[in-house]
Design goal:
By secondary structure, this protein is α+β, with helices and mostly antiparallel strands. The chain has 17 helices and twelve strands. It is globular. The model has no long low-confidence stretch (mean pLDDT 93). The structure holds 2'-deoxycytidine-5'-triphosphate (DCP), magnesium ion (MG) and manganese (II) ion. Magnesium ion (MG) binds at residues 178-179, 187-189, 191.
Length: 342
């Protein structure tokens, strides 16, 4: 599907999609993964519709949409409102879960636990909850972290990181990814990917870089420092730092900064992954799955053999020098970062 039609279709059924998205997000926040997933699937299906949906019969025929969800979609079309969403949105439970879920480092399960413990306000958390180091940082900058920053501020932050990194190792490849690379007007954080073309000079860079940024007062708090993702089945040679930075000058805000350092042979897969969006990544991985391939932030493997959804043969890595090469293996026309929101 071309991005042109994708845009038009999204507009035709936009009111439906927006309400389903809002509901799906709320289910995500309460960790109701199953419902969140059904909503996401329905949104993808409706986005593919090339005309305005205008009957219940039509909805129920759409793949993957069951009776209960079809009724809700019809309610949106027929009445213009979605009662369950409105109830959910105005419930005390949902408001508290949303409030708590916005603390950096707090997932849906913790938010629910805090609710069950009787906490209702951020002050309750500050005074009564048992907080991890990350959650303390998250609470400290609660309002600042909720604000998105303009693109020019991302450039300023990138410039500081570049200056310090290049002073340590010249010729590094330093690329800001995430929503910034997708061309968004505002960004939630700054995602910086670093590598070196010689395949070795990136090694051992992270700690000196963090030290250098700290000495200058640019980094104010740490969140995560890790050499590999222990929860990730395909953990590899990436090192990452999540922290908080502050540009010099008056009226500056604390911003979230993610730095990821990777070996050069994984650059294209890492670039693709950290550019996102998360939703786009999910569909790329699903597509790879259908071709008996496996796509991760490290590599694209082919000849993967799966049994009951677990790999019994991990396959062999394909040569992926560029993002274009990954699209090609998956038989997809190349999509520039600006067209990777879905
Ligand atoms: N990512 C992913 N799955 C996740 C989290 C992240 O695939 N659960 C990938 C895709 C994201 C990228 O990492 O685009 C960066 O993550 P961010 O959380 O920084 O998301 P964005 O930069 O896209 O948006 P924002 O402007 O909110 O930071
Ligand atoms: Mg980001
Ligand atoms: Mn990020």
């Amino acid at each position: 599907m071309s991005s042109q039609t994708a845009k038009k279709n999204t507009e035709i059924n936009k009111d439906i999609i927006d309400k389903l998205q809002a509901m799906g997000d709320l289910y995500g926040k309460t960790n109701d993964k199953w419902r969140a997933y059904s909503y996401q699937k329905a949104i993808t299906t409706i986005r593919r519709c090339t005309h305005r949906i205008n009957s219940y019969e039509e909805i129920i025929k759409l793949p993957g949409i069951g009776e209960s969800l079809a009724k809700k979609i019809w309610e949106i079309i027929d009445t213009g409102s979605f009662e369950k969403l409105e109830d959910f949105q105005s419930s005390e439970y949902m408001n508290v879960i949303t409030l708590f879920g916005n603390v950096w480092g707090c997932g849906p399960n913790i938010a629910k636990q805090w609710y069950d413990q009787g906490f209702r306000t951020l002050d309750d958390l500050r005074t009564k909850a048992k907080l991890s180091d990350n959650q303390q940082v998250g609470l400290k900058y609660y309002d600042e972290f909720l604000e998105r920053m303009p693109r020019n501020e991302v450039c300023e932050i990138e410039a500081v990181v570049k200056e310090h990194a290049l002073a340590l190792v010249p010729d590094l490849i330093i690329q800001t990814c995430g929503s910034y690379r997708r061309g968004k007007p505002t960004c939630g954080d700054v995602d910086i990917l670093i590598t070196h073309i010689d395949g070795i000079s990136h090694e051992g860079l992270l700690i000196p870089l963090i030290d250098s940024l700290k000495k200058s007062g640019f980094l104010t708090d740490d969140l995560v420092l890790s050499s590999s993702d222990k929860y990730e089945e395909d953990s590899g040679s990436h090192v990452k730092y999540y922290g908080v930075c502050l540009l010099p000058g008056e009226n500056r805000k604390h911003r979230r900064l993610d730095i990821i350092i990777i070996p050069h042979d994984e650059y294209a897969c890492a670039l693709l992954y950290f550019t996102g969006s998360a939703l786009f990544n999910r569909s790329m991985r699903a597509l790879a799955h259908r071709y008996n391939m496996y796509l991760s932030q490290h590599r694209l493997n082919t000849g993967v053999i799966r049994k009951n959804n677990s790999k019994i043969n991990t396959g062999t890595p394909l040569y992926t020098p560029t993002e274009e090469s990954i699209f090609k293996y998956l038989n997809l026309p190349y999509r520039p970062p600006e067209e990777r929101d879905h």
